[in-house]
Amino acid sequence: MRRTDKAVTVAGHWQGHDVVAKQLTSSERHWVRRFAHEVAAYQAFAATPPPWRTPRLHYAGRTMLIIERLPGAPPHTDRYPPRLPETTVTGMIDALTTFASWQPPPGPLRAPATDWPARIRRYVAAGDLPADHQQALLEAVAGAPVLFGHGDPLTSNALAIKHGPLTYIDYEFAGLYPGGADLALLGLWLSRHDPDTEQRCAHTAEVAGYLRGYQAMRVLWIAREQRLYQTLFDTVDDQDHRHWLDDQAATAITALRKAARRA
C-alpha cells in the first residue's frame, strides 16, 4: 500500500480478518519512538473507545503493527492537495473537531505532543521566526486550552467513504496540543489550492473559543513547513511554493500581532 523511508504498509488477511500491517524499517530513534507511540495509541483506543471509529488492534510488536483495515480511501496523497470536494473538507474539519472534544485516558495520549515554548525559542534563535513576536507566541500558546489532537491530519492519513463519516488513521503524533493546532495545520495544507478552507478552519476555531491558539499554531506550522522545505525538499525547485509559504508566514504573523493588540 505504501513504502516510505521509515516503514512499509501492506494489506492482507490475519486470522480471517482484513487487515493492514505496518512494518517499521527505520532504526532511527525518532521513528522507533513514534512507532511505539502509535501502538500505545491503538491500545488506548481499545481500552477507552473514542467517539469515532478506530481500527481494531490485532497485533503489536516492536517493529510490527497489525490493525483492522477500515473501509474507504485517502481523499488524496499530496501534502498540498488540489481543491477537494466540499463534503471531504467538511468531513476532515468535523473529524478534527471531534478529536478536540475527546478526553484521552491517562497515558501517552494525555501527554503534550511537544514542548511548544522550547520550540518557539528554538525557531527564534535559528532565525525562523522574528524575535519581536516570541512573547506573543508564548502567551498565545500558554493561554490556549490543551486538547487532544491527531497531530498529522494529512489527506493521506484520512479515509473517506461514499456514505459515512470521514475518519483518520496513523496516530504517530497524536497527543495533547494547543486548541486549534490540528485545524491550523489542515488549513495550511488545504489552502495552497483552496484559500477558502483556511478561513473555514479559522472560523471553526473561533466558534470553539481558541482562535488565538489557532493563530499561534498557524505561525509555528508555517515556520516548520519552511524549515522542511529548506532541508527535506531542497531538491525541489518550486519558487512559487517558496514564495507562497513566505506570503502565508507574513499574513499569519500580522494576524497574530493584531490579536495580541486586542488582547
From TrEMBL:
Residues 26-218 form the Aminoglycoside phosphotransferase domain. It comes from the Bacteria. This is Aminoglycoside phosphotransferase domain-containing protein. The lineage of its organism: Bacteria, Bacillati, Actinomycetota, Actinomycetes, Micromonosporales. Gene3D superfamilies: 3.90.1200.10. It comes from Paractinoplanes ferrugineus. InterPro entries: Aminoglycoside_PTrfase, Kinase-like_dom_sf.
